[in-house]
Amino acid sequence: MAVNQPGTRRFALPDGEMAALVWEKPGATRLVFLHGNGFNARSGVKMLERLADRYEIIAPDLRGHGATTLPADPATHRSWHVYGRDIVGMLDQLDARPFVLGGHSMGGVTALLTAEKLETKPLGLALIDPVILPGGFYALNHTPFWHLAWKRFPLVQGALRRGNFWPDVEAVKARYVSRPPFSYWAEGVLDDYLADGLKPVEGGVTLSCDPAWEAANYASHRHNPVRAAARCGVPVRVLKAEKASTVRDVAGLTRAGAVITPLPGHSHLAPMENPVACADWIAGVVEGFGG
C-alpha cells in the first residue's frame, strides 16, 4: 500500500525537545500514538502507515527514547507521570481538532495518564496491551520495601544486562534478527526500530534508549493506570494479547469502564508481530469513536 512517508517535527518543552514522526492530513481526525518502553516511534511505522490515508498521525519518541533529547535520569525516575506531562505539553502546541490517543505497553499507560490531565479531551483511547498490573504492585512502589525488591525483577535485570555497544548497525541486526522476540516480528519492523533505536558514538553505535533508563521504567510505578482509566472521562478500548500480556488486572480495568478485546495468537509485542491486525483494530476503534 503506497502511503506518504512521515515527516518529522520537534516540540520544545521546558527541559528539552521531543521528536515526533508526523503523517500530515489537514482536517482529518488526529491519532497520537505512543510507543512502549525501550522502543521508539519508528518501530510502529509498519502499523501506523496503514492508517495514514484516513487520519493525521503524530507518533512522538518518549523521553529517553529515539531522537528525543529530553533528560532521562534513572536515579530520579519514580513514575510514568513524566511521560503524561510531556505529551500534554506536546498537545498544547497542536491545532485544535478531534483526536484519539493511542499507545502500546508503556505508551498505553501514558495515554491514560495524559487523558486524565487534559482539559480538552480526546474522542477516546485505543490501547494495545497496556501495562495494567495488580493494584498491590503499585502500592508496593510507595513503601520502603520497593527499594529492596525492584532490582530482583527479571525485566529490570534483563535490561541492566543488555549489551550497549556495537561496531555498526549491521552487527546489531545480525545479533537481533534470529533471536526472540525480534525473530517473530513482521518483515521490515526490525529495520524501522533500529533506524532510530541506535545512535552513533565514537567507534560504533549504542542504543538510543539507555538500558538503565529502560530498567528504571520497569521499576518505576508510582502511578495508577486503573484510576486514570476511571477518571479520564472518555471511552477506553483495549486490545489484549493472548501471550505474555501485561494486562493483568482485567477486572479492575473493566470496572473502570474499559472494553477489552482479545487478540488470539499474538504476544505483548503484537504491533511488531502483526502490524496489519493492530492497524485494523485501531481503525475500527477510531471509527467507533466517531473519528
How would you describe what is shown here?
- This protein has 291 residues and is of the alpha/beta class.
- It has a single domain (7-155, 214-288), classed as Alpha/Beta hydrolase fold, catalytic domain (Rossmann fold), CATH 3.40.50.1820.
- It is 35% helix and 21% strand.
- The protein is built from 13 helices and 10 strands.
- It has helices at 45-48, 81-91, 106-117, 135-140, 145-149, 154-161, 169-176, 189-197, 211-219, 225-231, 250-255, 270-273, 275-288; strands spanning 7-13, 16-23, 30-34, 56-60, 99-104, 125-128, 198-201, 204-207, 236-243, 259-267.
- The strands form 2 sheets. An 8-stranded mixed beta sheet has the order 1-2-4-3-5-6-9-10, with helices on both faces. A two-stranded antiparallel ribbon has the order 7-8.
- Strand 7 and strand 8 form a beta hairpin.
- Helix 2 crosses helix 3, helix 3 packs across helix 10 and helix 6 (154-161) runs antiparallel to helix 9 (211-219).
- The chain is globular, with a radius of gyration of 18 Å.
- The chain starts with 6 loop residues before the first strand and ends with a helix.
- The model has no long low-confidence stretch (mean pLDDT 95).
